[in-house]
Design brief:
Blueprint: H1 2-20, H2 25-47, H3 55-80, H4 86-93, H5 96-107, H6 116-135, H7 141-163, H8 169-192, H9 202-226, H10 232-239, H11 241-254, H12 260-278
Length: 319
């Protein structure tokens, strides 16, 4: 299941790029988030998971987390691919564990320990290696949006840890996707005037739907099944295979060719994420989830992944 999750999340990146060739960004995300959210509700019904969120304060926390974990992640990662290589966007989005450590240090007063300072240094070097060749002209807005993707994902994870919601993590993830669908659909109506599918061909439509089926519905369903069966650290380290699959699939499917500096930067950033996740779970890495789910490292939370973390709530915290 963990291997399948890495493949699913990794393949979602080139699928998004294919969809964006023919479908406007807000239309693409509205459809994919709707499809993924519908799948999550069905999964919750089949597994008899409680969708209860306690009180108005609990709903406010979920709404804020949805904006950070799912809505921002979805919009930033989508627009990033319009002006940057998909492989770069995939790798930079997975800098999330490092940003989570930094934000927890700032807002939760949880000082980096163990290998975490090393991870921050490796990430900084990796980003410099990736971005420096682009400085001669101008840093593409896609690079900044890709970094914003990882930061928003991390912010949502840290926020959920601070909020300490007493609810089923699957429910938190599902409602985050539902709330984000409303927000993204509203943006689609404002900026695109409604669904824009006139120029879409079969491959663009299929890629749009599959982004929702794989990247949201299937990925979150797999993630919450995995964290009930594997130690949290094992699951979290396994997910590091997702950006690797994303880069490889972008090369094979989209024909992208990473430069030597890309490859070095990718390796340093992945090493940084691994250092964070290999660190012994301490206060800074304990996630606020349902007691029966067990503790999940803060840095492990996928962007839409609550409690355990996206891709919890959300790219599971992503894709």
């Amino acid at each position: 299941m963990l291997a399948a999750l890495c493949v699913v999340w990794g393949l979602t990146w080139p699928l998004m790029r294919i969809a964006l060739n023919e479908v406007p960004p807000f239309t693409m995300r509205t459809i994919s988030v709707f499809v993924g959210g519908a799948m999550l509700f069905v999964i919750c019904a089949i597994k008899r998971r409680s969708l209860h969120i306690p009180g108005a304060k609990g709903w406010a926390h979920v709404a804020i987390a949805a904006m950070l974990n799912v809505a921002s992640f979805s919009v930033f990662s989508t627009f990033a691919q319009l002006s940057a290589a998909t492989s770069r966007v995939a790798i930079l989005s997975y800098t999330m564990p490092i940003w989570a450590v930094i934000l927890a240090w700032i807002f939760l007063r949880e000082r980096p320990t163990g290998m975490q300072p090393v991870a921050i240094g490796l990430c900084a070097i990796g980003l410099a290696v990736l971005i420096y060749p682009l400085v001669e002209t101008k840093i593409p807005i896609g690079i900044l949006l890709a970094l914003a993707t990882g930061v928003s994902w991390a912010a949502g994870t840290v926020y959920l840890k601070w909020a300490r919601l007493q609810a089923d993590p699957m429910a938190i993830a599902t409602w985050q996707v539902a709330i984000s669908f409303v927000v993204i659909a509203a943006c689609m109506l404002i900026f695109e005037g409604g669904l824009q599918l006139q120029a879409a061909h079969t491959d663009g439509l299929v890629a749009t739907v599959m982004t929702g089926v794989l990247g949201t519905g299937t990925a979150y369903g797999l993630w919450f099944s995995i964290i009930r069966r594997l130690p949290a650290m094992t699951a979290s380290l396994g997910v590091l295979g997702s950006p690797v699959i994303g880069v490889i699939s972008s090369v094979l499917i989209l024909g992208e060719r990473p430069t030597p500096s890309d490859i070095i930067g990718f390796a340093l950033i992945l090493a940084a994420s691994a250092c964070v996740l290999f660190a012994r779970p301490g206060p800074a890495l304990a996630s606020a989830g349902s007691p029966r789910e067990g503790a999940t490292p803060l840095s492990a939370a996928p962007a839409r992944q609550p409690g355990a973390s996206s891709r919890s709530a959300g790219r599971p915290t992503h894709r």
